[in-house]
Design a protein that fits this description.
Strand content: over 45%
Structural class: mainly beta
Largest sheet: 7 strands, mixed
Shape: globular
Helix content: under 10%
Distance between the termini: 40 Å
Length: 120
């Protein structure tokens, strides 16, 4: 069974930093594009950042210049470094894995979510 296990959320003051981690099973990590999404109360889940084939990254405009997505292939882990946090970054953050290649199969895996709360 595929698992995406997130960690690193918490409470931080505005301007502070947090690093989220998402550990994935080895096979899925090697054939997937990994991403981070977030969902605030009463709002739809939204893209935060993705890490795709060849090391390409994509960020939501609201986090550009503040957040950085990266991977550690040896640990099958994707990270989200969040700096200069703002109260509007408060949300539950979810790790996501989607097929990278046509032959990867068809799936859309989510982690259990980790809460990030930024106080003003």
């Amino acid at each position: 069974q595929v698992q995406l296990v997130e960690s690193g959320g918490g409470l931080v003051q505005a301007g502070g930093s947090l690093r989220l981690s998402c550990a994935a099973s080895g096979r899925i990590f090697s054939i997937s594009d990994m991403g981070w999404y977030r969902q605030a109360p009463g709002k739809q889940r939204e893209l935060v950042a993705t890490f795709t084939s060849g090391g390409a990254t994509n960020y939501a405009d609201s986090v550009k210049g503040r957040f950085t997505i990266s991977t550690d292939n040896a640990k099958n882990t994707v990270y989200l470094q969040m700096n200069s946090l703002k109260p509007e970054d408060t949300a539950t953050y979810y790790c996501n894995a989607r097929p990278r290649y046509v032959w990867s199969g068809s799936y859309n895996y989510w982690g259990q979510g980790t809460q990030v709360t930024v106080s003003s």
